Amino acid sequence: MSRTQTMLASLVALLVLVFALDIRDLAERAGTPIPGFPFAFGGAAMDNLLAVLAAVLAAGALGRGGGALHRRLGLGWHGARGPLLVLLATLPTWLLLAWQGTLASDLALLPLFWLALAFPFAEEVLYRGFGYVFVHRTLCWPRWLALGLQALAFGFIHWWSMGFGSGEALTVFAITGLGGLVMGVLDALDGDTIWSGLVFHVSLNASWSVFAVADDAAGGAWTIGVRLFSAALAIALLVWARRQRSSRTAGM
């Protein structure tokens, strides 16, 4: 790509990153509403499907000649070690929530599927797969810039969903933005694939759905603390695994 083409591609990528999850809201404001699916969580399911389609189409159009599409979106496989170590790192969050709380009274498989698996997967494809892996490896953004902007966009879309309010809404922006950065760093440490970040995202979302926690977004200082601990532990374990792999490679 020429410099001008790269700049235009980067602008398109940024627009997709910021607005893909709100395509239906934008369409409604433009007078052409897009209906959701006719089942529970159908509106959010359509939002997430459109976001993934936008990311896939943008990556296909902007990254021609940049290798297989699934790898451009971080969907290649770098081995199970990273995701398993990340899963282990989330265990303290599960244990503390089980100790401090109780099983959610409204726990059901369908909401758990959407909130703890399907929606996190769509968000990982959009924000970490497209917003980090694609723009870093295909559009050649500096790693720090790609990681930072996708995290800001991830926090922004959650803030937007709460009407750009203050107080709790800003807490959500901060928590989700930091979470987006953590998941991006995990993906970077695991060979620029989305699976380690996805495991972190799915595990913490599942724990939040399985156990009853405080009603406020922060969930109390202790829940923030244990999530930060799990994040730090996950990063530390992947750094350790990466050094172990490098040592073995150097010793061959």
Give an overview in words.
It contains 11 helices and 2 strands, in the order H-H-H-H-H-H-E-H-H-H-H-E-H. By secondary structure, the protein is mainly alpha-helical. The protein has one domain (68-251). Helix 7 runs antiparallel to helix 8 and helix 9 packs parallel to helix 11. The longest helix has 31 residues, at 221-251. The model has no long low-confidence stretch (mean pLDDT 90). One of its GO terms (molecular function) is metallopeptidase activity. This is CPBP family intramembrane metalloprotease. The chain crosses the membrane at residues 39-63, 84-102, 108-127, 139-160, 166-186, 193-214, 220-241. Pfam families: Rce1-like.
Question: How much beta, percentage-wise?
Answer: under 5%
**pLDDT averaged over residues:** 90
* N-to-C order of helices and strands: HHHHHHEHHHHEH
Rounded Rg? 19 Å
Provide a short characterization of the protein structure.
This protein is an all-alpha fold. The protein contains 11 helices and 2 strands, in the order H-H-H-H-H-H-E-H-H-H-H-E-H.
